[in-house]
Specification:
The complex is a heterodimer of chains A (344) and B (328).
Chain A: H1 12-34, E1 57-61, H2 68-83, E2 87-90, H3 97-109, E3 114-117, H4 122-134, E4 138-142, E5 151-155, H5 157-175, E6 180-186, H6 191-207, E7 211-218, H7 222-235, E8 241-244, H8 247-259, E9 270-275, H9 278-285, E10 290-296, H10 298-313, E11 321-323, E12 325-329, H11 333-343
Parallel strand pairs in A: 1-2, 1-3, 3-4, 4-5, 5-11, 6-7, 6-8, 8-9, 9-10
Antiparallel strand pairs in A: 10-12
Chain B: H1 3-26, H2 29-44, H3 50-75, H4 83-99, H5 104-128, H6 133-151, E1 156-157, H7 161-168, E2 170-171, E3 174-175, H8 176-194, H9 196-206, H10 208-213, H11 220-244, E4 246-247, H12 256-266, H13 278-297, H14 302-327
Antiparallel strand pairs in B: 1-4, 2-3
Helix pairs in contact in B: 2-13, 3-8, 3-9, 3-11, 3-12, 3-13, 4-5, 4-6, 4-11, 5-6, 5-11, 7-11, 8-9, 12-13
The chains are: A alpha/beta (344), B mainly alpha (328).
């Protein structure tokens, strides 16, 4: 259309762009491939020099700072720590495994007495946890277990998926007579996602074998959930169910179905997700076809972030904690209100 | 048909054929796009279904709205990598205003102001102070994301039916985002083709010193393009917020800067500045949108999708790179 002849120009900009692109790709690859927790490792519960002393500081290292849960957790954990006269430190990892390692090493060097960390790469966190224990610090692993640790805070990620899949299958059997179409919005890039995906799909397909699985699409955010579901609806306009690995992705599917003309309370449609994010909880509460969310209670997590290191410091025999996941559905108004209040 | 008609029509056919060939030579992506559409239609049977085309167009609209001003900026020899975070900020500002009961126009104006402000900061730092646009906008990408998360730590949702108009209304049967994108594309093409300022964009991109010596203000135009790019990104954010009826500070628009830059570059805009076209940008946007949609329709497994997208993008970029040489 309008292309004057190009003239020879320095290529510095292009070089800079390529350098950055290579760096970004490397980081992405590390993030995508490295977020794997070992299946099961035994907690060693090694003795710490901090045991028997009052804790004054806890370092909370939660790498996914882009998630709304991060802000909520920090706020609630700070409040929980304050009740016990403890100050809460936080890292800013920006979902970067290398940044996380650097920040954790800094804390170990600075002798932060108790560290609660959600490792992005469990293998990379292992030597840092060992250094922390060797330095007499408390190390609490969040979302999994390491060989070297004082205790852990566990979630059954698979259970969240199983709860959702089972509820959706029950609905499909009752409302659709066991016949219909389902699409799963999944995640296979990190262990948490794989566990949730497996729990969700296994539970659903086992309990509702007559429902046709028409797609398994990678989607964790609302934008992707929206565009993938729109495409699926072009091929399967009679799609009945969409289950999401996250509430965010499922919410995108919810909007796509609405924009395709489904009435908000369509009796033959079921959308469900996981996390317990505010927009999804509101949609469930309002009686829409967004019918279920496998929710984590931020208050329970925040309490564990403070209580588990305190239990280690107090020398308790079994200081670890397991945070429950609750399935909320239409009618669970009190529970939804409680979760919404925690997210406020 | 009379003999006179036949005589008259021959040159017209020849002109059309020559024009078509020239367009294909300049934009080989047209052939790739046509082949892609054919393959997806034959293998899925639903790629060209009106509902699916409407979905592709709506998804691609936000990309096009930002790609046009960004392309002009790149043609003038600059770059803006902060558009992903600006998109999030725009969506959040619009969403907050809408959820507080402000009219949709006020919400959109608020978003435009926020995006324009980010663009103005980029413009001052790059055009007035002469700092590297690569470094400045990369820094702003992080800074604006942090600002958005600080100001809006929790997701916003429930913006009301008035604001839903922006993402869901139909104008003469066309979805509002698509209509806006068409306007932006037309404005960009007309600006480049028919205004002196459009020619100045090329001149600045080809040789800044020569443009300066020719009497062109080499700071004002790129500064204005930075502001317009920021405002366009914020408008795209407001549209996305309207379509989804929700927006999350940490994830909204994440990676959007690479998607839009990819569309611009495979559309044949030279990263070194001085060359490019709006038709190329449109082709780049349609190629990206169509590819993603087709792979979803084919139910291609995730990692194969990533590989296919990567290979297709490299191939598209290679074609775009080779095009000017074959055109000479």
């Amino acid at each position: 259309m309008n292309t004057p002849p190009s003239s020879p120009r320095p290529t510095a900009s292009r070089r800079r762009f390529l350098t950055l692109s290579a760096g970004a790709l490397a980081t992405t690859a590390l993030t995508a491939t490295g977020c794997s927790a070992p299946e099961k490792t035994s907690a060693s519960g090694r003795a710490s020099a901090t045991v028997g002393k009052d804790l004054t500081k806890i370092g909370l290292d939660y790498p996914f700072t882009q998630l709304p849960l991060y802000s909520t957790l920090v706020k609630l954990s700070k409040a929980a720590a304050k009740k016990h006269g403890i100050s809460l430190l936080t890292t800013s990892d920006n979902a970067g495994a290398d940044t996380q390692a650097t920040n954790l090493k800094t804390w170990v060097t600075q002798q932060v007495p108790a560290i609660v960390s959600f490792p992005m790469v469990f293998e990379a966190a292992e030597p840092i946890a060992r250094q922390a224990l060797d330095a007499g610090l408390i190390w609490v692993t969040y979302g999994g277990s390491l060989e070297s640790q004082s205790a852990d805070i566990k979630f059954s990620f698979r259970e969240g998926g199983t709860l959702l899949g089972t509820a959706a299958a029950r609905w499909a059997e009752e409302q659709l007579g066991g016949k219909g179409k389902i699409a799963f919005l999944t995640d296979s890039t990190i262990e948490l996602g794989r566990e949730r995906t497996k729990g969700m799909i296994d539970a659903f397909t086992k309990a509702a074998p007559g429902i046709d699985v028409v797609a398994q699409e990678q989607a964790i955010d609302p934008d992707t959930g929206l565009s993938r579901t729109k495409a699926l609806l072009a091929k399967h306009p009679d799609l009945n169910l969409v289950l999401g690995i996250t509430d965010a992705a499922a919410y995108g599917a919810f909007k796509a179905l609405q924009q395709a003309g489904r009435s908000t309370d369509d009796a033959k449609t079921f959308v469900g997700g996981q996390d317990g994010s505010a927009p999804s909880l509101l949609a469930v509460k309002q009686g829409t076809f967004y019918r279920a969310s496998a929710a984590l209670a931020p208050n329970d997590i925040a309490a564990a972030i403070v209580d588990v290191p305190r239990a280690v410091a107090a020398g308790k025999a079994d200081p670890s904690a397991e945070v429950p996941i609750t399935l909320v559905q239409r009618g669970d108004t009190a529970e939804i209100d409680r979760l919404l209040a925690q997210n406020a | 048909m009379t003999t006179a008609d036949t005589v008259l029509s021959r040159p017209r056919v020849r002109v059309l054929a020559t024009g078509g060939l020239t367009a294909v030579r300049r934009h080989p992506l047209i052939v790739v796009l046509a082949a892609m559409v054919l393959v997806f239609q034959l293998s899925t049977g639903s790629f060209l279904a009106p509902a699916n085309l409407s979905g592709i167009a709506t998804d691609a609209a936000t990309l096009a709205i930002v790609a046009v001003p960004l392309a002009l900026l790149v043609i003038s020899g600059y770059l803006d990598l902060s558009v992903g975070s600006t998109l999030a900020l725009g969506g959040l500002v619009a969403g907050r205003l809408a959820s507080e009961g402000q009219p949709p126009v006020v919400a959109v104006l608020g978003a435009l102001a926020a995006g324009g402000a980010v663009g103005a900061v980029n413009g001052v730092l790059c055009c007035r102070l002469g700092l590297s646009p690569f470094i400045v906008t990369l820094g702003m990408l992080t800074a604006v994301r942090g600002l958005a998360q600080q100001l809006f730590p929790l997701p916003l949702s429930g913006f009301g039916s008035g604001f839903a108009w922006l993402g869901g209304a139909k104008i003469a049967g066309i979805a509002a985002p698509v209509a806006i994108a068409v306007l932006v594309l037309a404005a960009g093409a007309l600006f480049l083709a028919f205004t002196p300022s459009g020619r100045h964009v090329f001149a600045i991109g080809v040789n800044r010193e020569a443009a300066h010596l020719s009497g062109i203000n080499i700071r004002r135009m790129p500064f204005a393009l930075f502001v317009v790019t920021g405002a366009a990104a914020a408008l795209a954010g407001a549209i996305k917020a309207s379509v989804l009826d929700s927006v999350v500070a940490g994830t909204s628009g994440a990676g959007f800067e690479l998607a839009v830059l990819t569309a611009v570059l495979i559309g044949g805009v030279a990263l070194t500045g001085g060359s490019g076209s709006i038709l190329g940008v449109l082709l780049g946007v349609l190629f990206l949108g169509g590819l993603q949609n087709g792979l979803t329709l084919l139910n291609v497994p995730t990692f194969w999708q990533q590989m296919t997208q990567g290979v297709a993008l490299v191939a598209g970029a290679a074609l775009a790179y080779l095009a000017p040489r074959t055109g000479r």
